[in-house]
C-alpha cells in the first residue's frame, strides 16, 4: 500500500503545474457573457491566439501585437461570426489581457503539494512583452514559457507515439542509470498496450457490425492497416530495446562490487523481466491485428452479398413512426420479435421416464440406519425368559424322546403340545441348538440361554443335523426338518 | 445433415460460433440448405464475423415467440395489453441507442431506467394526442388497441414512489420496466453494466446494424410498416 501511495503522488507538483497553465484558457471558455458576444466562442479564440503567437515564433516574426492578432482572428472566423472588425479588436484585447494581466501580476496557482506536504505557489505567464514601440505606441507580445508548454500539451502525437516515446525514455534513463524511473516507464507502456488491446477489441466489433459497403470497408481497412504497421514498428523497437537492456545488464554484471551495484543489477534484472512481459503482450497484439485483418477481409466478402444503409435512425424510423402514424400495436409485436428468440415447442417425451429422477425429497429426516438401542435391563429380562422357555421345551422334548436315541423334528413337532409349537421360542431353541451342535452342558457358562436346557441332558451330547424338507408345525412358523440325536457321554468320548 | 445440425443448434441458442459452424462457412451446399431451413421458419441467418445469428424476420409467424409465453414471463395477471406495452418499451429502449442519422453506431453508453421511463412517457403522450378516434381505427381488426395500452400506462402510477427504487412486486411503471428488463435479459437484448445502467448486447447491436440496416431486409421492414398505412388508403379510396 505504501508503495502505491508513494508512486501515485510522485511528481504531484509537476502535474499540477501542467494543469494550471490551462486555466486561463478555460477561464475564457466559462467567461461571463453579455448579449453582444453571445455566440463568440472564446475558448477557440483563445486557442487560436496561442497558435498564432506560436506560429509567429516559428517564423521569427516578433513584432506582433493586438492589431495583428485581431486581423488574424478576423480572417479566420470573421465570416462565421459575422462581427465587425472593431469587435474583433476588442476580442483580441480581451484575450491578451486574459493571458497577461494588465496590472502586471503574474498568473498564480496556489496548491497543496501532497508529496512534499507544503503549500506551494506556482506563478507562470503565458504571454510576455516583446518590445515596445514608443513612436507608434504599440506593444508587441510573444509566448512565454508557460504558453509554449501549453502549445506542446495540445500536440497530438501523444497517443500514437506513446509506446515509442516510452521506449526512448527507457533507453535514455538506462543510459543515465535511472533504473527506478525506467521501471515506471515500463509500467506505463503496459497500460498503453492494454489501451491498444481495448481499441482493437472495439474495432473488431465495429468491423463485424459495420462493414456493409466497399466504402466503409476501405475506411476500416485503412485503420486496421495503420494499427498493424504501427504494431510492427513498435515490435521492432521493442526488440532493439530488449537487446539494449540485455547489453546493459551484462555490462552491469561485470562489476558487482558495492551493494549499490548489486541493487542496480537487481533492478536491471527486473526491468528486463517486465520488459519481456510487455513485449510478449505486445506480440500477442500483433497476432490479434493479423486476425483482425482477416476478419475485416471476411466481413468485406460477406458485404458483397448485401448492401447496407449508410445510416439508419432507429428511433426516428421505427419508434416515432410507430407512435405517430399510429400503427396498430400488433406492429410493435412484429417489430420486436426480431429481437427475441424463436418459439420453442415444449413437448414431453415418453423417454424422459428413463431419465434420472429425483425420487426422494430433501425435506425428509435422515433415515436412522443404526440398530435401536436396547437397554441392558431389558436384555437381561429377555434372556431370563428365554432361558426358562428353553428349559421347558427341553423338558418336554426329553419326555417325548424318553429312551429313543434319535428323533426327527417332524415327528417331534406333532407330539409336542400345541402351545409350545405355536411359540416362537420353540424355533429359536432349535436354531440355537443346531448352531451349537454338538451341544453339551458346560459348567462355567452362567449367562448362557441354553444353560437350563442342557443341564437336563445329564452330560449327554445333543447332535442336531438338518435333513430334507421344510416343515410347518404352526401356521406362523416354518423350519427346516432336523434330526435330533442324543449321544451318550461315553460314546462321544 | 450438417446443415440440420447447425440449424438445430441455432434454433436452440439463437447464435452459434466456433467449430460447429465451420461446415456452414466452408461448404456452399450446407450454407444454402441452412439458410433455406431458416427461411422456412421465417427467420434469417446473419453472419457476423465468426458468429452466426438466427434472427426472426419482422412480421408475424407461427414460429416466433408466442403471446402466451411472453405473458407468462410478465406474470400471472398479464394481458395482451401488457405484452404490447412491453414491446413498445423494448423498441423505445433500442431507439434510444440508435438515434442519429450521422452515425450508424450506438449513440450512448447506457440508459437508466428513469430516463427510459421518461421516454416511454413521451411516446405515450404522443399516442394520446392522436385522439380516441384515430386510435380506435384499428380496434375492429385487432384484439388490442392503443387506448388499452394508454389506460394501462396511466393505471400504473408512479407518483407513490417518486424517490425509492422499487423492483419488487408493486404494480408501478418502474416495476413494469424492470420486468421488461428481465425479459430482455433473457432474450439477450440488454446487459446490466452498472447500478441501474443498461446497455445493448452485442447480439442486439448486430441485429440492428446487420438486419435493420441491411437494404434488403430494411425494405421488408418498411413494407411491413407501410402495409398498415396502405390499408388506410385503400379504405379511403373505396369509391373507385
Attribute tags:
heterodimer, A: 493 residues, mainly alpha, 3 domains, three-stranded antiparallel β-sheet, two-stranded antiparallel ribbon, 19 helices, B: 240 residues, 6 strands, globular, disordered C terminus
Give the arrangement of secondary structure elements.
The complex is a heterodimer of chains A (493) and B (240).
Chain A: H1 2-9, H2 12-20, H3 23-29, H4 42-58, H5 66-81, H6 85-99, E1 107-113, E2 118-124, E3 127-133, E4 138-143, H7 145-153, H8 157-176, H9 179-210, H10 214-254, H11 259-303, H12 314-324, H13 329-336, H14 376-401, E5 406-408, H15 409-415, H16 418-421, H17 424-436, H18 451-455, E6 461-471, E7 479-487, H19 489-492
Antiparallel strand pairs in A: 1-2, 3-4, 5-7, 6-7
Helix pairs in contact in A: 3-4, 5-6, 8-9, 8-10, 9-11, 10-11
Chain B: H1 2-13, E1 15-17, H2 22-26, H3 28-40, E2 43-48, E3 51-56, H4 67-74, H5 80-97, E4 111-112, H6 113-129, H7 131-136, H8 146-155, H9 173-186, E5 190-194, E6 197-200, H10 202-212, H11 215-236
Antiparallel strand pairs in B: 1-3, 2-3, 4-6, 5-6
Structure description:
The complex is a heterodimer of chains A (493) and B (240). With 493 residues, chain A is mostly helical. Chain A folds into 3 domains: 1-154, no CATH class; 161-311, no CATH class; 404-487, no CATH class. Chain A has 19 helices and 7 strands. In chain A, the strands form 3 sheets. A 3-stranded antiparallel beta sheet of chain A has the order 5-7-6. A two-stranded antiparallel sheet of chain A has the order 1-2. In chain A, strands 3-4 form a two-stranded antiparallel sheet. The radius of gyration of chain A is 53 Å and the shape is elongated. Chain B is built from 11 helices and 6 strands. Chain B has helices at 2-13, 22-26, 28-40, 67-74, 80-97, 113-129, 131-136, 146-155, 173-186, 202-212, 215-236, and strands at 15-17, 43-48, 51-56, 111-112, 190-194, 197-200. Chain B has a 3-stranded antiparallel beta sheet, sandwiched between helices. A 3-stranded antiparallel beta sheet of chain B has the order 4-6-5. Chain B is globular and about 55 Å long. Chains A and B meet through α9, α11, α12 and α13 of A and β2, β3, α5, α6 and α10 of B. Chain A: It comes from Cohnella fermenti. Chain A: This is Replicative DNA helicase.
